[in-house]
Amino acid sequence: MSEAILDVENLNKSFGALRVTDDVSLQVMPGELHAIIGPNGAGKTTLLHQVSGLLASDGGTVRFGGEDITGLPMHARVHRGIARTFQITSILPGFTALENVALAVQGRSGSSFRFFGIASREQALNDEAASLLDLVGLAARADLGAGTLSHGEKRALEIAIALATKPRLLLLDEPLAGMGHEESNKVIEILRSLKGRYAIVLIEHDMDAVFALADRVTVLSYGRVIASGDPAVVRSSPEVRAAYLGDEAA
Ligand SMILES: Nc1ncnc2c1ncn2[C@@H]1O[C@H](COP(=O)(O)OP(=O)(O)OP(=O)(O)O)[C@@H](O)[C@H]1O
Q: Which stretches make up the ABC transporter domain (predicted)?
């Protein structure tokens, strides 16, 4: 069995007296899509903040690619290959879709492009941005203002922006939130196509999407892991059904 790319051990975070993540341990293998589910307020987003470095942990360790990154700030984690999208959209609406991704490519590769002339540098940035847009199904929307894209297309663009950092691990916080059926299906297809190429941690409330996509599911309830493993096994766990899935799993 290959080594986990992400290894979270006994992670804790409290806000005042409220313990929001409580000795959370989980592993994500290279290429695995690992879903984290749980009721509202279970601590899922907080856990993602702790993994991405947005929030310092009170205890526990985060290892990435075998390295202890627990004390590293967010930008250092991005540099090592952890990318995330936010529930709040982070695109620049006044720029085209292509420019949004090209800026992210430039942000990553500023130094490696500096030996090129201006024109070739721009071409190289645009080529890479165009291929990322293609990957998320937005090739035909490249020259449109990002602000004019549909909600689903904006979420796809955010994924392309995250991919521009050349991540090895993608952290996605509710990428299907606020979408209709058709848009959801498009984003699910994008995630399916990324699966295997990137390790992905997916927080999602859409159970159909979770069980269609996930290789492994971890369930949080009141900050604690109450189940983790094969989606079918997790789905049939009485404790999980009681805590979260309820009638949906019946
Ligand atoms: N900065 C903060 N200060 C105080 N309490 C916080 C803070 N951030 C989160 N919380 C609390 O921590 C708990 C867990 O929040 P979190 O957003 O991690 O849950 P979640 O599982 O992602 O929920 P949802 O599914 O609704 O997004 C909630 O009770 C929330 O109110």
A: 6-247
Q: Could you report the average pLDDT of every consecutive run of 10 residues in the chain (250 residues)?
A: 88 96 96 94 95 96 96 92 76 92 82 52 87 94 94 92 92 90 91 94 92 95 94 89 60
Residue 8 near residue 60, CB atoms below 8 Å: yes
Check residue 88 and give its pLDDT.
53
**CA 124 to centroid of ligand 1, rounded, Å:** 41
CA 184 to chain centre: 16
DSSP 93: T
User: What's the burial of 98, exposed, middle or buried (CB within 10 Å: 0-12/13-18/19+)?
Assistant: buried
42 CA: nearest ligand 1 atom: 21
In degrees and rounded to multiples of 5, residue 37 shows phi and psi of -125, 170
* Interface predicted TM-score (ipTM): 0.96
Give the Å distance between the CA of 98 and the centre of ligand 1. Answer: 34
DSSP character string of 6-49? EEEEEEEEEETTEEEEEEEEEEE-TT-EEEEE-STTSSHHHHHH
How many angstroms separate the alpha carbon of residue 21 from the centre of ligand 1? 10
> Which residues does residue 220 pair with via DSSP β-bridges, in sequence order?
225
Query: What pTM does this model have?
Result: 0.90
Atom of ligand 1 nearest to the CA of 43: 18
In the chain, the domains with their CATH numbers are: 1-81+167-250 (3.40.50.300), 90-166 (no CATH)
Which pLDDT score, from 0 to 100, does residue 85 have?
80
